[in-house]
Amino acid sequence: MPSYIPVKLRKLVAQRANHACEYCLLPQKASFFVFQIEHIISKKHGGASEVQNLAYSCPICNRNKGTDLGTLSGNPQVLTRFFHPRNDNWEAHFTLDSSGEIIPNSEIGKATIAGLDLNNVESVIDRKKLIQAAIMKKT
Q1: What are the C-alpha distances in Å from 126 to residues 21, 36, 82, 118?
Q2: For 32, which DSSP code?
Q3: Fewer CB within 10 Å, N side or C side of the chain?
Q4: Is 36 helix (H, G, I), strand (E, B) or coil?
Q5: 32: how many CB neighbours lie within 10 A of its CB?
Q6: Is the Cβ–Cβ distance between 38 and 54 less than 8 Å?
């Protein structure tokens, strides 16, 4: 169920993220869709609508993440949590290469890429074009 997040708080979350998805790095200005304020830990799992639990997310990442906190990954498969934009450093878990692909640097990175489908074909193509146009910076 959607929860109300005040406009002032929405603006703060968007500004903190430089108006780019905190998971896939897609800039809002490069999207036709309105970005969303996402609960990192969903209300279903006890997460609150407060600044430290909110992330700026493109609709694709938000939809793919849903209320999940992690996914099974590795060999043998174990439950691995997703990247947490407030507690984790993006570059510690991911690298954005010039092809537009997000490369995992950790098990958390692998789990997040798989769970949020960060490297779906369309997203990789879009990121590559944005990198080439210097709208998106690779790390």
Answers
A1: 14, 19, 23, 12
A2: S
A3: N
A4: strand
A5: 4
A6: yes
How far, in Å, CA of 79 to CA of 70, rounded?
A: 7
Cα within 13 Å of Cα(62), Cβ side: 18
- For residue 55, the cross-strand partners are 38
Name the token pair of 94. Answer: 């991911």
3-state secondary structure of 20: strand
In the chain, the N- to C-terminal Cα span, in Å, equals 35
**pLDDT number for residue 1:** 39
Pick from 44-58, 74-88, 124-138: least confident: 124-138
Measured in whole angstroms, the distance separating CA 139 from the mean position of its chain's CA atoms is 15
Token pair of 3 as six digits: 């929860």
List Cβ neighbours of 78 (8 Å cut-off, separation of 6 or more).
72
- Residue listed under structure tokens 């092809």: 99
Q: Give the per-residue pLDDT at 139.
A: 59
Question: Is pTM beyond 0.90 here?
Answer: yes
57 CB neighbour count, 10 Å cutoff: 27
